[in-house]
Design a protein that fits this description.
- Helix content is 19%, strand content 43%.
- It has two helices and seven strands.
- It has a single domain (11-142), classed as Alpha-Beta Complex (Nucleoside Triphosphate Pyrophosphohydrolase).
- It is α+β, with helices and mostly antiparallel strands.
Length: 145
């Protein structure tokens, strides 16, 4: 298995951007990178798994929510270096827009907390600018559906 920290090559991370009635499903990260910050449910793509399968699995593991993954919403790089300039983390992040199917949010696996957050309340949740941007894209894309 490829190691997350100081990897030998980039890893693929998959996020599930779930919107329901104008709210987004957020998890509070339990591990680095991003421990303590809020993000969409997600994790590392496993060998032999499609992006949709990974999004579905990660959402269920981290939140207890069943989803139906849809289109790719956003793709970006996450590269973090240590003080010596070595690459500590390197992910290619693929976020999929997903439809809520069923379940009640509960924190599982590597999530400290999970909740539905209304668009107007996002400022109260510490998150990277990239995450905020992706959430705003999702909210805009689903505003009229």
């Amino acid at each position: 298995m490829m190691k997350r920290e100081y990897p030998e090559q980039p890893l693929v991370g998959v996020g599930a951007v779930v919107v329901k009635n104008g709210a987004v499903l957020l998890v509070q990260r339990g591990h680095d990178p991003g421990r303590g910050h809020w993000a969409m449910p997600g994790g590392r793509l496993q060998l032999g798994e499609t992006l949709a399968q990974a999004a579905r699995r990660e959402a269920l593991e981290e939140t207890g929510i069943e989803i139906e993954p849809g289109e790719v919403l956003y793709v970006s790089d996450l590269i973090q270096r240590d003080d010596a300039g070595r690459v500590r983390y390197h992910y290619v992040l693929v976020d999929l827009l997903a439809r809520y199917v069923s379940g009640e949010p509960r924190a599982g696996s590597d999530a400290l907390d999970v909740r539905w957050v209304n668009a107007g309340d996002l400022d109260a949740y510490p998150m990277p600018a990239r995450t905020r941007h992706v959430l705003e894209l999702a909210l805009h894309a689903t505003r009229n559906t």
